Amino acid sequence: MKKLAxxxxxxxxxxxxxxxxxEAGKAKAATCAACHGADGNGIMTQYPKLSGQxxxxxxxxxxxxxxxxxxxxxxxxxxxxxxxxxMPLSEQDMADLAAYYASLPISDNTTPESSIEVGQQLYxxxxxxxxxxxxxxxxxxxxxxxxxxxxxxxxxxxAEYVKLQLEKxxxxxxxxxxxxxxRSVAAKLTDGEITALSQYVGGLH
Length: 205
What we know:
This is Cytochrome C. By secondary structure, this protein is mainly alpha-helical. Helix content is 53%, strand content 0%.
């Protein structure tokens, strides 16, 4: 029953998104380009690639950056830069920006040879003895996630950004994950495993 309730809540939240206009989003994305680049692939590796991401996920994050401010940090997602950027956006603005970046192609990435063994093991199989779920269960074998369920595409993402997010989930500094799923996984990962996993998904195809 809990799984059914989770699925229904995810589907309900996805149906609440406004219909985005990619062309309108392009016109509104000028400020975003300073960090995320004109092509949505990020200026520096600590910034996420937005290109090719599921629009519902992008829209959700913008809403939660705004919620982080309006709730005084008790809800949503907190980031000093993104929270300020999201505050003046209307729901239609968010939908348009999400539609625009989702329409762009993500740039290629590679995985260092040294990270494949550890990263692949954790991604595909997890670690049952330590209670670590396989990443593929939610993000899929190719790292494409699922739009309807709200799980993001992580393949091709900047490894440094993924690493920073896993560290924030582990420390409890980021807490906008459904049912604390990401916090539960990240809490059991070592620094070395976080690095390997971040680099592995970066080059996952």
